[in-house]
Design brief:
This protein has 15 helices and 16 strands. It is an alpha+beta fold and 444 residues long. The protein has an eight-stranded mixed β-sheet with strand order 1-5-6-11-10-9-7-8, with helices on both faces. Strands 13-12-14-15-16 form a five-stranded mixed β-sheet, with helices on both faces. Helix 1 runs antiparallel to helix 5 and helix 5 packs parallel to helix 9. The chain is elongated. The termini are far apart. The structure holds adenosine-5'-triphosphate (ATP) and magnesium ion. The site of adenosine-5'-triphosphate has 19 residues, from strand 6, strand 10, strand 11 and helix 11.
């Protein structure tokens, strides 16, 4: 019956052979965030729809077209389209903002948006995100941007540009909205339907419209940067001097307005041209009004979201290095039931030491077992038959060199394996040193 069911459009399976790529990103993201004092937060996959309406904003693409809203019994929920709203909700609900500020949290999580699937644009995608609440200082903006930059650097990603802009506070925006309305009013007839409603409610959103016609009309629109109040423009200048001090290159892009409504002052994006149209790998900014909007006290805050699928696309394109997946340390080939029993206990003790050990579960012959061990790339193999069992010892074979070492099959098996393993490791290192000194092996 269920034979032909496929995964939904816009979702992906991650198979064991690729898991280490995800682990690489996750490890670097966690370690970097923690080195900046961010702690991990995990919040529910779904929230009350109202939360996203009030935070992301009713005139955004996300709310207007992309939310997965489900009705379960009598209640309506929405699968999180982004990480900030749920995170801030959790910080408020759990009183984190009453503790020492700034509060700093990060997450690695899935997000859901009903979009047209294409490379780098999925319906379920994953984000690494951070949020910092409590600091109004431009140094906090620099801190968050530099965290993102260090993650990208540590992943080995190159040719990525940082664009920054300031979209001001509600004060500067009032004047700016008037100027935008006046500008778009003339070409009202050409705007798409969505933008037509935006013209009234939130004209800045038009600048973010993906329709090429609206994009073309918006080309010569007034720029927010020319409307900043003194506070906002000095904040923006200080941020720039902090970035310069940190040696982080950036370009000001007055066209960035970001897709979510809650941003104020600083907004930024890390963009690459190497993975096609979906080149924005990370987007973030300051949202000084959001916490108050969600029922908290006025608390300046900021953060970013980094798309993990897009990171992986860039990493593949640029042949970045990943953590090496764990390889089999010992494969035990067995003949007969007694040998199998012994292999099970030997493997158990190996695993207790943190080694990866395997033995045959398919009833294969010895030859086929060795072939399988080769395919696994096992570092060592051990053949157990009646003779080995009765003598209480066997030959440990290093697969790379074919060298064999006799090893007792007693309680100290794993300790002895350890010794052989480290001997071989040292030999390997010495060989590398020789290589280093002479440039190449003698008989190369
Ligand atoms: P875009 O302009 O590409 O639609 P956005 O402004 O909607 O992006 P944000 O809401 O700021 O994106 O999300 C932060 C990051 O999450 C993006 O920079 C991107 O890397 C990633 N992202 C957003 N939507 C998707 C998606 N549908 N599939 C994969 N990654 C996504
Ligand atoms: Mg989007």
């Amino acid at each position: 019956m269920a034979m032909n069911i496929k995964r939904p459009n816009g979702t992906e399976d991650v198979l064991p052979k690729d898991a280490h790529k995800w682990h690489t990103i996750e490890k670097i993201a966690r370690e970097t965030a923690e080195s900046f004092g961010f702690g991990e937060i995990r919040v529910p996959t779904f929230e009350n729809t109202e939360l996203f309406l009030r935070s992301v904003g009713e005139t955004t693409d996300v709310v207007q077209k992309e939310m997965y809203t489900v009705k379960a019994k009598e209640t309506e929920f929405t699968l999180r389209p982004e990480g900030t709203a749920g995170t801030i909700r959790a910080m408020l609900q759990n009183g984190l903002l009453n503790e020492a500020l700034p509060q700093r949290v990060y997450y690695l999580t899935s997000c859901f948006r009903h979009e047209r699937p294409q490379a780098g644009r999925l319906r379920e995608f994953h984000q690494f995100g951070v949020e910092m609440a409590g600091s109004a200082s431009p140094a906090a903006d620099a801190e968050v941007i530099s965290l993102a930059k260090i993650v990208l650097d540590r992943l080995g990603i190159k040719n990525i540009e940082l664009y920054i802009n300031s979209i001001g506070c509600p004060d500067c925006r009032k004047k700016y909205h008037e100027a935008l309305r006046a500008y778009f009013e003339n070409r009202k007839d050409e705007l798409c339907d969505t933008c037509l409603t935006r013209l009234d409610k939130n004209p800045m959103r038009i600048l973010d419209c993906k329709s090429p016609i609206c994009g073309d009309i918006a080309k010569d629109a007034p720029l927010i940067i020319d409307f900043l109040c003194e506070d906002c423009s000095s904040h923006f200048e200080k941020l720039q001097s902090h970035l310069t001090n940190l040696g982080i290159e950036f370009k000001i892009n007055p066209k960035i307005v970001r897709g979510l409504d809650y941003y104020t002052k600083t907004v930024f994006e890390f963009v690459t041209t190497e993975i096609g149209a979906q080149g924005t790998v990370c987007g973030g900014g300051r949202y000084d009004g959001l916490i108050e909007q969600l029922g908290g006290q006025h608390t300046p805050a900021l953060g970013f979201g980094m798309g993990l699928e897009r990171l992986l696309l860039v990493m593949e394109k640029q042949s970045c290095e990943y953590l090496t997946p764990k390889k089999c340390d010992l494969y035990i080939a067995t003949m007969g039931d007694d040998a199998l029993g012994k292999a099970m206990t030997l493997a158990a003790s190996m695993r207790e030491f943190g080694y990866y050990a395997e033995f045959d579960l398919m009833n294969r012959g010895i030859k086929a077992q060795m072939k399988y061990a080769n395919k696994l790339g096992a570092a060592f193999t051990l053949v157990l038959g009646d003779n080995e069992l009765s003598e209480g010892k066997a030959k440990l074979k290093e697969m790379k060199t074919g060298e064999e070492t006799e090893i007792l099959l007693d309680d100290k098996f794993t300790v002895n394996f350890d010794a052989v393993y480290f001997d071989k490791l040292m030999e390997g290192l010495e060989e590398q040193e020789v290589l280093g000194a002479f440039g190449k092996k003698e008989n190369d």
